[in-house]
Amino acid sequence: MKVLDFPLVKITIAFILGVIASYYSHFSVSKLMIPLSLSLILFCFSYFWNLKHNKKYIIFGVSVYIFSFVIGAVTLLSHTEKLQKNNYTHCKSAFEKPQSITIILREKLKSNDYSDRYVGHIKSISNKIYSGKIIINIQKDSTENRLIIGNTIKVQTALQANKSNKNPNQFDYGRYLADKQIYAQIYCQKKEILVSKTITKDIWYYCAKLHSRIVLNLEKAKFNKAEMSVALALILGQQQEISQDIIQDYQYSGATHILSVSGLHVGFIMLFITFILKPIPNTKKGSFIKLTSILVSLAGFAIISGLSPSVLRSVVMFSFVAIANHLRRTGNIYHTLLVSILLILLFEPYFLFDVGFQLSYLALFFILWLQPLLKNIYKPKNKLMVYIWEALTVSFAAQIGTLPLCLYYFHQFPGLFFVTNIIILPVLSFIMIAGIVVMIIAIFTSPPYFVTIIFEKSIYLLNLMIHAVASIDSFVIRDISFNSYYLFTFYLFIIYVILWLKKPDYTKLVLVFSSTILIQLAFILTKFRTESEKELIVYHEKNNTLISERIGKNTVLFTRDTTFEKNKNSRSVNMYLVGNSIALTKTEKIKNLLYFKDTKILIIDSTGILPSNAAPDILILTQSPKINLDRVLKNIRPKLIIADGSNSNTIQKSWKNSCLKKNIPFHPTNEKGYYKL
What we know:
With 677 residues, the chain is α+β, with helices and mostly antiparallel strands. Helix content is 55%, strand content 16%. Strands 1, 2, 3, 4, 5, 6, 7 and 8 form an eight-stranded mixed β-sheet that branches. A five-stranded mixed β-sheet has the order 14-13-12-11-20. A five-stranded mixed β-sheet has the order 15-16-17-18-19. Strand 15 (593-596) and strand 16 (599-604) form a beta hairpin. The protein starts with 6 loop residues before the first helix and ends with a strand. The mean pLDDT is 82.
């Protein structure tokens, strides 16, 4: 049976399209009630009409897909917490001035140089019941941090709303948090926090306690700290203590996926449990015992790892695979994946916009679909060559399937990914098995010294191999411009090529050539768009002023420091260049007057010099100039004032008040991000 002939495929696709439409179109609940009611009536009518006439009518299929689409849209809205009446986003006063906020700590995040960070759930604001997730940033000091998951804390502070990306094509951290239903953060000091004696002992508390116990027992066993941080990431998905240098090595070698617990790790665990249970006969009772053991083991792993979203979705995915194997339905593995996708998105529709979710399912799909085709190209007889060839084909299938998406999100490609996967898989297999054993022992007691040493040295060897591959810097291709046009056309090309290779015919060959033409059109359209655009950008850069003027592909950067290479490699400028498929033409010393199209732009820096007879359309303030803005505005009265990131926050508050008096728009880049003209 063809995959697309299975009704669940079309239902799942319709549901996903509904989720996407709701996400980008921002439907309201009230607007969706009428379509929901009408689609339900149409579905019921067509269903009973089919039953009455004992015949399949096309209207029934159409009604099912329309109903699935609307259900997808409604599901997303029902999981959008800010739409709930008691969500803290509706308490406007909490964002304007300090309030007494009560929060339960739920998750420990990776700390930075300045703060310990947690995810918490708000219980109340000024004794009024509110709810919602929030990030708590607690300033570090010389005293020990004694907070644990489950603590209820009270702090007098104001909520800080998530801010959008400050510079063009920058990672939008505010949107990333919003997709996790986190809409604000708070910043406080330890001395400002009141900790309740009552601890909320829910599943998050017990997961954190179990994790703390494992870490404590590993420390007692004299486990090296650097290797232990990698072990916790590999086995439990806990990356809080792992160093940035190690993360960078894994990124450059193309092995980042092994630090985030996902399908690879859960698959290892499932294979390991299946191997242990091999002696049990495949009778009806024996198969049920095997299935129960696998499901319990996977659920236990999810709990030990702290119930992170990546682990939960992988556990759900492989639980369905285990159930399909038990029911002897391995031939419909694609349908099993679809059921797991649909179930996950019904409970967490925002997972669809999570990069990890997209990459996990794409990698698994292409391994199942493409790897058998690649495997049949060459059939080695030597066992070692069989292993190497299978590792290569699995790696290539996953890489081909995820490559366009990786280029779209990360704009870089690790050229030695296949070398990395061949050399790390044997070590990783051993580490996963040894790690599971060590972690289980560490739940109850400190692991034996010889077991700890073997596990520690295997991780040391893994890090050494990863570092060796990552150090060959020339094979890491960075700053690859890859937009949404390329993303869709390249996926069309990959899909049609695989379909043609599996069963060549004339129609499929035409589709391959058509997709090739679409790729060329995507390049032409991108080139045309780039060369026809003209824009001026005022960047948000602390302690510096950066203004770029682009006419087509020619980009001039105005700055105080005119060192070409330094500005070219500036993160803010580089992301803009990569995102627009352009290169920096030249840098120039910043001037007091700029002209862009018919717009006159005046720049006042720390010198505070105001040219005579200046009548600008836009006034840009940089380097905290000591000027009386009220007097300046009285003399020149611009249409807009921009304050970049080089100005102090205190002086910007004064400028904002001055602009309000004169009714002139004020654009501070530290609040609103970059300005584009």
